[in-house]
Structure formats: C-alpha cells, structure tokens
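note to self — DONT lose this again. spent like an hour looking for the file last time. sequence + predicted structure for the chain T wanted, 103 res
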Amino acid sequence: MTTYLIVRAVVPEADRAKFDQWYQDVHLPEALAVFDAVKAWRGWSHDDPAVHFAFYEFHSLAEATAINESEAMKNMRADFDRNWQNRISRSREFVEIAQNIQA
C-alpha cells in the first residue's frame, strides 16, 4: 500500500527565505532522486508559518522504511545539518495509507 514519508521542520523566521530556496532548488530534487521515491512535494503550514512539510511517496511501507537507515538518508541528514546546524528542528513520520477514495 502507498506510504508517505512526511518530514516536518520548524524554521526560524530569519532562515525561511533561504531555507525555502535551498529546499526548492537542492534538497527536494536530490531527496527524490536518492530515495527513489515515486514523487515528492512540499509546503508551508497555513496555521503556523514556521512549519514546513515535505512529502515523499513510496509504493510500499517496506520501500519507505528501507531508506530510513540507508546511506542516502544518512547523507541527506548530514547535508541538512551542515546547512542548518541546530537552527531547524525536524521530525519524520511514515504513514501507510489505509484507505483512498475519490469522488
């Protein structure tokens, strides 16, 4: 069943413009490629402008969770840390779709 890796980041106001550009131009395209995800997208919370979400779609939970301890993920985390040090907190969650209906 389709699974999403959802990354939530809390970005200080002083870093938002630079973070937004970096995520758009560098991080999201690179993550999509190295994770071998089906697709990726991102956005900012309407309720809290400091919160950024990135979504990565995988065909299965096994595919998604396999990247969690992969070299690709370790490298992406290291790159993130190099760019943002400890200024941006983030969390990751895997969500397996239980139901999907359309009108």
